[in-house]
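Person: I have long wanted to understand how a fold can be written as tokens. Underneath my words sits a plain record pairing an amino acid chain with its backbone structure tokens. Those tokens are not coordinates but codes from a learned vocabulary of shapes. I should like you to check that the lines agree and flag anything odd. The protein I mean follows directly.
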Amino acid sequence: MITSERIQDALAARHGVSVRHCRVEALGGGDTGATFQVTLNGRPAFLKWLPDGDALDAEADGLAALAAAIRVPEVLDYGSLAGGRALLLEWLPPVAPGERFWPALGRALAALHGVEGERFGHHRDNWIGANPQRNTPDTDWPRFFVERRLAPQLRWARDRGLDAGVARRVERVMATAPAWLEGLTIRPTLVHGDLWQGNVGTLAGDHPVVFDPAVYYGHAEVDLAMLSLFGRVPDTFYRAYGKNPKAVDFQQRSRLYNLYHLLNHFNLFGGGYAGAVSDSATALLRY
């Protein structure tokens, strides 16, 4: 397991400073990776370390893509470190959100979703949590969402024991989804891709900041959908963004887009999400 001392020695050497000017404190970790609070030459920072660093390379790429349109932590350094891969980020102390936060987030996301691409997808694959996310570009959004998002998750869910009846309902959703999206003008817009409320923070002055992206060019509503998956989003957000959250078609698309994340949570965390997958697929098929 990686240690604070090993990170300290390697980081000090990488930046050409004495270990006295590189303080490292472990914050937590799992079976493979770890996180640290770092003070390097007097500047606080946040460091992520993995023995196999593709997920960190993907995160650095995603933060760079978002940075021109929305506040993200600045990437201070990333590369090989202490036998693995490390990503060093600006330290951003969060504060409690005030009444101006949600409208500010609505405007910030509207600006992000104003960044357009030529095709759906991204120039590289990345990660949604600990699962791979395939981003091979496509010109057709319904096909991209079914083949690059739902189909892999359903395949993994079957391997992890998802009930056969639930899997069949998800298959029916996948077959019907293109008809639900037919007639919409959907432009490839830059999306965060994993925008649950735990990946949104508040800086001083009620300024929003977002973390841990899984970026690609997709339908902007995928971000709006996930933002409401695990917590209420106030009307002030939607007014600032310019969306009516009570529109039936929008609610149906949100449920469809969140089925991807519910399947991913089933694959990551197990059977506790099986009921949510089942309920979501059933509700979609009643539409």
In short: The chain has two domains: 4-90, 101-285.
